[in-house]
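From: lab user (bench 3)
To: helpdesk
Subject: output format question, protein + nicotinamide-adenine-dinucleotide

Hello, I'm new to running complex predictions and I'm not sure whether the block I got back is the full result or only part of it. Here's what I submitted:
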Amino acid sequence: MANKPRIGIFGCGRGLSMGKYVGPAGGEIVAVCDHNPSKLENAKSVLAEGGKAYARFDDFIEHEMDGVYVANYFDQHVPYVIRLLEKGISVCIEPICGATMADMVALVRAAEKYRDRATFMFGENYQYTPALQEMKRIYQTGKLGQLLYAHCEYVHPTTSRERVLYAAGHNHWRNSLPSTYYNSHALSPLMYISDAMPKVVMAQSTHCEEYQKGTARGTDACGIMMTKMDNGAIFTTTGCVGGAVHSTWCQLTHFRGAMETVRYDPSVVAVRYTSATKPEDSPRYNTYIPDPPFDGQKSAGSGHGGGDYFVVREFIRCLEEGIQPYNDVYRGVAMAAVGVLGWRSVMEGGMPYAIPDFRDEAELVKWENDTLSPFIGADGKRTLPTTVKQDWKADPADLAAAEEIWKEAKSFTDYSWPGKELN
Ligand SMILES: NC(=O)c1ccc[n+]([C@@H]2O[C@H](COP(=O)([O-])OP(=O)(O)OC[C@H]3O[C@@H](n4cnc5c(N)ncnc54)[C@H](O)[C@@H]3O)[C@@H](O)[C@H]2O)c1
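Helpdesk reply: Thanks, we reran it on our side. This is the complete output you should expect:
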């Protein structure tokens, strides 16, 4: 490897936001790739001297790189990731680690097969806010006792215009995204704090006409999953809830005490014991803003409460030291399976679904051909509904309103899969 890890960025929307932390985290960006000309033009600003911008993935992958930050379309990560790993290029990916069960199986098999030459990391950022890193530290002291249940919500309100512009094209993944799929911002913090893995999921979803009005969204505004974990605790987590108000609240109730980030102020940690359970060396009530455990200055002001910097830092550290990340492929696909099988649960009125053990070959064989998907496939069709309201039909007036906004903002994406996208 060169002096500094050489990083490529694939997908220069979210990818570019993460690219700005590569330098401070110790790497350099040597190549960027986006087939959207204006996104590619913007991305040139983050290139190191001599770096190159590519419109086609086939050309990009030939560039000398140690690692690639993958931020292309949500449902299309896996085939590209497999090609990168095969070539010995390490990968850090944005949500989701496979939009179908078959994708998850293929991803696990590739990460294992090429493990000696390339590292796979799931780049989930929310778990790395200073408050959640502090809650992991407290959890590990054991003072709170057994974890009984925990709750984490990710609520991201948007205007209808934003919902149209974030999903520029009728077939864009955000217009087909079931309410349980974008679940890792809520599930990863709890898995990170407790090291627990999911065993069984049950889910429900809320349809909301106002959320869809004036947009091309065929999706629900809220999905909630109840997951039994391998440590016996029960987690309730959201997908990406579309309602008011912005929230990333995280709360854990243990047998001897409880802790949470303060609702609507996620930088604050509150820890509580009863008078009977208070440890000698801890106050009964403590509410404070923790500092990050390291790199305070570098992470200050970074996106998502500081989490964005720490994701990039961990990826670079894995490349420098040849170590595995916390969010390895097994954690990544376990989160994806909670979202994807959670949606099957919604479709069946809340039936429980077992989360496969992705280390068990028999489980991989069971799911390897399960390609059911709510996203538009190569044949222009989807094989799962996108809303719990199964008789729902798009209102032509809403679709026309979305088209007007795309036209005026000149932001329509010719989003088709795989066809010309998988270049
Ligand atoms: N962690 C977070 O907080 C966070 C926030 C936003 C988005 N994301 C994730 O980032 C990813 C991208 O989302 P986004 O918001 O940037 O929107 P997006 O999915 O619309 O953008 C994807 C970008 O990749 C490019 N692209 C797609 N396929 C390509 C191909 N084959 N060749 C070249 N370029 C290609 C597109 O032109 C576009 O610029 C998604 O996985 C999403 O889940 C994460």
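A quick orientation on your result: The chain has 14 helices and 15 strands. Let us know if anything else is unclear.
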